[in-house]
Amino acid sequence: xxxxPPTAYLKALSGVCRNFLAKEPIYPFYASFKLTxxxxxxxxxxxxxxxxxxxxxxxxxxxxxRNLSRSSxxxxxxxxxxxxLRDDIEELLKYARQCKFYLLFTTSVKDILSYPVERYARxxxxxxVSIDEGHDNLVLFDSLKxxxxxxxxRTRAPGLSVQTVVTPETIDFLDGKVxxxxxxxxxxxxxxxxxxxDAKDCFPDMGRLERKVKYLRRIYPNTIHTPAGFFxxxxxxxxxxASIIIASDxxxxxxxxxxxxxxxxxxxxxxxxxxxxKEAANMRTSMKRCERxxxxxxxxxxxxxxxxxxxxxxxxxxxx
Length: 320
Fold this sequence. Notes:
By secondary structure, the protein is an alpha/beta fold. The chain has helices at residues 6-22, 58-70, 89-97, 117-120, 144-151, 174-183, 206-219, 230-236, 271-275, 278-289, 297-300, 308-319; strands at residues 30-34, 75-79, 102-107, 126-130, 159-166, 187-192, 243-246, 251-253, 262-265.
């Protein structure tokens, strides 16, 4: 893993300290940035297409990245929709590489090997390939060996992981998926299909899923990157605003994507200043009162970004 400038860690540490003093995760460590709502697929459990609109111009994306670079955020993820559908994706990758955060990139394209992955890899810290039945792209498991070969040995080779969404019908297929990741030098992040508005309810039995994940962890150590505290957090119904999602229109979903509320436009509003506002505090209160317990992965990944230990646990899925 590359070393960022000292100021990158200092701003993140400052966020941890301020959260500790406030006893709540005001300042996030992780940002998911939906670069586009366009997608190749129509997954039944996903509602990304309900918030459609034109892609932001390149200059606007860069302005948001600068905003994140000034904040406590230590990890930014390029997502969608499908980020590879943007014509300026390489320019955005190069720009993000200069920012004061690690860059995770998530894609689900079936023909990933037809893209210049070796070139893009120079700017990416962690590469996630989203593969599951909903995306109808299970063929990508057959591409892992070649993808891993293209990335291995590079000076700036990103960490490679598969991200798979689990429904009630697909829990038993995890054995084969984890095995293929293990054999091809990739990790795997296992995510339940969260209960989203305007999408089919595909939420799995969490007790059954937890037993399956525990079983597979014993067989394939260090392959599964889903945080150890995820299921415990779900049982407690304990959400966290320690990670944020930025919609393709540049506005931040807050306190979470599932509730559908939006905060400021990060093209023009400073993220750190807004998070300290009364408006943001009121939105966090709405998260505390929420009883949906939807299983949205990002917000159950950790209890809160209020200590160094919880910050390390939050980064574990992509760093280790």
